[in-house]
Amino acid sequence: MKGGNRITENIGHVAGKPWEFLAVFLASFFVLSTVFFALDFYPEAPKTIADKNAAPASDSESGSVAGAAASQFSVESPSRIKIPSIGVDTPIQNPSSSDITVLDNALLKGAVRYPGSALLGEQSRMFIFGHQSGLPVVKNQAFKAFNNLQNVKVGEEIELYSATAVFRYRVISVEHASVSDGWVDLSGNDRMLILSTCDSFGKKTDRNIVKAEFVSRELLTNS
Predict the structure, then answer these.
(1) Rounded mean pLDDT of the chain?
(2) 3-class secondary-structure state, position 55
(3) Which of 47, 111, 124, 212 allows an S-S link to 118, with CB 3.0 to 4.6 Å?
(4) Could you say which DSSP state residue 46 is in?
(5) Does residue 109 sit in the same domain as residue 202?
(6) Do 21 and 117 share a domain, yes or no?
(7) How crowded is the C-beta side of 52, counted as CA atoms within 13 Å?
(8) What is the reported pTM?
(9) Where are the beta strands (DSSP E) in 75-155?
(10) Which tops the pLDDT comparison, 136 or 199?
(11) Mean pLDDT for the stretch of residues 58-80
(12) Which stretch of 28-32, 144-148, 156-160, 213-217 has the lowest confidence by average pLDDT?
């Protein structure tokens, strides 16, 4: 029974000094945990597997448009522009030449993306211009492509369509530029969309300029 008495004495000794025992226990636990962690004895947390039935992650980007997700978009030509708030819905031409005659001829078919400005999915600025007419009767609807562009409001939405997706933009400024003002700045890499009205690309006339920031990209269900 000497062993039993020794254990009883030890328990009594510990019970008499609980705080000293707790301090020794915590210190020992900390040392052992550090050793096990250093030797990689702790298992890694299991990696989660996405539910096949769960909704896919949003293919969009908000605020600043220079994120990694947007940079992985496929590059496509815009084929149509819609501004629901002012009734704009017109096709977009994508000529390969910046010759004034070529651009003016393209304006007869709808809005025109200026050659050399960004395509959809590229990390740079896109410039699209189109006719505006105040005449009550216009045979060629392309002359009314950007009618009422000056009436669009900051915060309203612009939609650009490609063959596979719709790219959405939010209006951030609406300006009236006089003939003496400089031309459109395409030097930024911020995915800005710039729209402008004009009578002819080669003429120096007053124009309305709308700038919009990229918001999101959504795949079309029928693509």
Answers:
(1) 76
(2) coil
(3) 124
(4) P
(5) yes
(6) no
(7) 0
(8) 0.67
(9) 80-83, 88-93, 111-113, 126-130
(10) 136
(11) 63
(12) 28-32
